[in-house]
Amino acid sequence: MTVLNESGVPDVLPPLGAAGGLAERLPGLLVVVAGTRSEAHLLRCVPPPPAPGTFPPPRSPRVLSLVLDPEDPPEQGRVASGTVEAAAGFRGLEAVLLVAGRSARRLGVDAGLEARLAARRLELPVLAVDPDEPYPVPGVLATDLEDRALAALAGLCPEGKAGVPARREEGGAAKGGGLLASLLGRGGGEERREPLRRPVVLLGAVHSPGSGREVASELARDGVEVAGSLPPGGPWELPPLGEGTLVAALDPNLGAALEAAGRRGAGVVRTLCPIGVDGTARFIQEVADAAGSTTSELGRARAVWQELQPLRNRIRGKRIFFAGDTGLEVPLARFLADAGAVVLEVGAPRLDRRLLSEELRALGPDVDVVESPDWRGQLERIERSRPDLVVASPGLYAALVARGQLCRCSRDFLRLGVHGYGGARRVLEFLVRALDRAEALDSATNL
Question: Which Pfam families match (predicted)?
Fold first, then answer.
């Protein structure tokens, strides 16, 4: 596998696009974005992805803009006063998220101080979040606000409950350990420590709550206790987070949230993202093992692959180019390569090898990964390779369609819900429909 860093300016949706999704997932949360008119404009123009088969939802009333004038920098306490005034019109609030990025910093706003001042007056938690705070690896992802917000929310979670002893199986093997145990000196007379079962908290999937629930159901089917998700999918019920819990991310790029959970004492399970059949099987297997549940996903994965065989036959050999922008391109490319597609290139706006090490190993040696791709270079490589389908960011979509390329927008995958075994089927069906329609149109044109 070749990893090339172009140090370009990739086309990426702004992280502020996640503000609406956070407000929808957390009914007790008010999101206040302090910034210039450009940030306010972005909030209106980038709605959260809708659920499959639905229209985009209206902008949440709990996402508000606090517009700052560059010609009149705000005095200390002004942002706090604006936050308090914004919260006064809502009932039942549990917390306020004060989003203050690069432009607010340049205007002299101390977001942490403003949050503390607002919290005293509101008597509510006010969390300051900077979506533009730099990461160890340069680059921007659409999930950056989600990551920083989840890291801040982790501090509000109750302490995790301690694990409970796993239920022991009946029989001689459970009591005495069998022949192997006696050979190793672990006879029946010696007291054995029973493994603990630990509850699991799932992180992420702000824009795909349905597929996140599917993964939770698969874990529960294998005897894993899912204590909740962050963000939660319903009322304001933050999951327990502490020494007695495990945390697993549904998105491989939530590094700040995972670090925050680790600082709370939670165990972090690092494995493949639950995208695709093999990724879901390995995720469930390793999370279940860490949680103290004995299970095997091999048979389940084989059965799902068998069910998907007609779709695999249709996708096999098709050449696919990922232009990137959601941060899920590497797991999606890994799944499609496993399904038989030929992945020409994977564009990654930011490639943190520490977080994506498992994904990169599973991707295989025949796929080229371009870190921080330059959009001009991407257009040239697409023109030369002429792939069967391009997964493009919104900014490149129109330009590629105008050049005759078959494209699907990267945000369409967020709408589908890509996680879990059900997500694997939805991804393949979505791509097969696109290819079938294109071939039908070509046939009609050639008549």
Answer: Oxidored_nitro
